[in-house]
Amino acid sequence: DAMVIQNPRYQVTQFGKPVTLSCSQTLNHNVMYWYQQKSSQAPKLLFHYYDKDFNNEADTPDNFQSRRPNTSFCFLDIRSPGLGDAAMYLCATSRGYGQEQLFFGSGTQLSVL
Amino acid sequence: KNEVEQSPQNLTAQEGEFITINCSYSVGISALHWLQQHPGGGIVSLFMLSSGKKKHGRLIATINIQEKHSSLHITASHPRDSAVYICAGRGQSSGDKLTFGTGTRLAVRP
Known about the structure:
The complex is a heterodimer. Chain A is an all-beta fold. Helices cover about 0% and strands about 50% of the residues of chain A. Chain A has strands spanning about 5, 10-15, 20-25, 30-35, 45-50, 55, 65, 75-80, 85-95, 100-105, 110. In chain A, the strands form two sheets. In chain A, strands 2, 4, 5, 6, 9, 10 and 11 form a seven-stranded mixed β-sheet that branches. A four-stranded antiparallel β-sheet of chain A has the order 1-3-8-7, with no helix packed on it. Helices cover about 0% and strands about 60% of the residues of chain B. Chain B has strands at about 5, 10-15, 20-25, 30-35, 45-50, 50-55, 60-65, 70-75, 85-90, 100, 105-110. In chain B, strands 2, 4, 5, 9, 10 and 11 form a six-stranded mixed β-sheet that branches. The radius of gyration of chain B is 13 Å and the shape is globular. The interface of A and B includes residues 43, 45, 88, 90 and 104 of A.
């Protein structure tokens, strides 16, 4: 059974039209991550939560926001998607920092038309 | 120079061959992760290592902390093993961030 679930698997949006990607987890993990992965590149960390504490990467564009209303769910909001935001978005969880296993979702492939 | 380097970048093998993918890192880490990603797919975590050796089915991962080197071995390779394999170092010097290697694209031919 999937433990980190991302919806939808594929998302198509229009240039400038806000879009929300979701991630849920059944592991009760404290840490949730959002990564952006463009074709043939390594994943890039956008932000992460430790419980409710939000940690933004310095180079994450302001266009990207995140919400974590409870332990199980985390959302990625892209306020005004541009063509350059087309990518695979990956959610991952971990019980904590350091020597803890990481669990990834299957990703959401975002296309911007 | 990347902080986490993998070799080879691309690898083609015949079904049944023993495969080794190498990872060297120059940063301080609390753990090293081996990840698998199929084309257009999400990432599957294969191993997390902080020392020694781990085995899961046909996969074996080793790490040498002193030499800052890790290897992923696949025994009796199969076409379904075809994927990108990524090593990633976590934490210590990077505030718990994952520092990803460049990835190794493996193709196993029947």
